[in-house]
């Protein structure tokens, strides 16, 4: 049985710390695809931590990880984008709440993968729209730049999510499956 998404213990705090550190340390790795926008493999980590530990852990790890990355790379935190990383991971973590989805014990079905993909894509698009709006409303960024930035980031994040994030979660669940088709001959 999965634990509550609001139950915090030492393991939860350590998981958040590891997720934030990994996301923060790897977010600078990417291929530029637009103004201040890159195709970043680190997005897959949001999918992994969200799906395996739930939306709250995903949100906090994504937010803190993005803040760490901003501080390490530029010294300035872009709060709209940091919150966007947390929102993305929280949406991806909604699959954690689905009945019968338990990758820790190898339990998932095709409908779970479909839901995970929908949650992830919706989360990516909504979080980046939020980030763009935040930059326009509070940071004084030009809207034409943000249209390009949000579009490029949405496309690249969806690609990374589908190519790396979804297969990683499926692979983890398959590895943890307790049943096999092997039999013992006596």
From TrEMBL:
<feature type="transmembrane region" description="Helical">
    <location>
        <begin position="12"/>
        <end position="31"/>
    </location>
</feature>
<dbReference type="GO" id="GO:0016020">
    <property type="term" value="C:membrane"/>
</dbReference>
<dbReference type="InterPro" id="IPR009825">
    <property type="entry name" value="ECF_substrate-spec-like"/>
</dbReference>
<dbReference type="Pfam" id="PF07155">
    <property type="entry name" value="ECF-ribofla_trS"/>
</dbReference>
<protein>
    <submittedName>
        <fullName>UPF0397 protein</fullName>
    </submittedName>
</protein>
<feature type="transmembrane region" description="Helical">
    <location>
        <begin position="78"/>
        <end position="101"/>
    </location>
</feature>
<keyword id="KW-1133">Transmembrane helix</keyword>
<keyword id="KW-0472">Membrane</keyword>
<feature type="transmembrane region" description="Helical">
    <location>
        <begin position="113"/>
        <end position="134"/>
    </location>
</feature>
<keyword id="KW-0812">Transmembrane</keyword>
<feature type="transmembrane region" description="Helical">
    <location>
        <begin position="43"/>
        <end position="66"/>
    </location>
</feature>
<feature type="transmembrane region" description="Helical">
    <location>
        <begin position="146"/>
        <end position="173"/>
    </location>
</feature>
């Amino acid at each position: 049985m999965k634990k509550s998404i609001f139950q915090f213990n030492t393991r939860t705090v350590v998981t958040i710390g590891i997720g934030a550190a990994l996301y923060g340390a790897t977010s600078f790795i990417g291929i530029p695809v637009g103004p201040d926008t890159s195709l970043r493999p680190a997005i897959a980590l949001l999918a992994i931590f969200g799906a395996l530990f739930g939306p709250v852990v995903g949100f906090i790890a994504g937010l803190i990880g993005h803040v760490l990355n901003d501080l390490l790379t530029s010294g300035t935190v872009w709060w709209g984008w940091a919150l966007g990383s947390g929102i993305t991971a929280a949406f991806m973590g909604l699959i954690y709440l689905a009945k019968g989805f338990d990758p820790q014990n190898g339990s998932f079905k095709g409908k779970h993968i479909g839901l995970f993909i929908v949650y992830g894509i919706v989360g990516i698009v909504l979080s980046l729209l939020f980030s763009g709006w935040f930059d326009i409303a509070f940071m004084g960024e030009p809207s034409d730049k943000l249209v390009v930035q949000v579009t490029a980031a949405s496309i690249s994040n969806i690609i990374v999510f589908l190519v790396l994030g979804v297969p990683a979660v499926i692979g983890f669940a398959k590895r943890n499956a307790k049943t096999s088709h092997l039999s013992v001959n006596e």
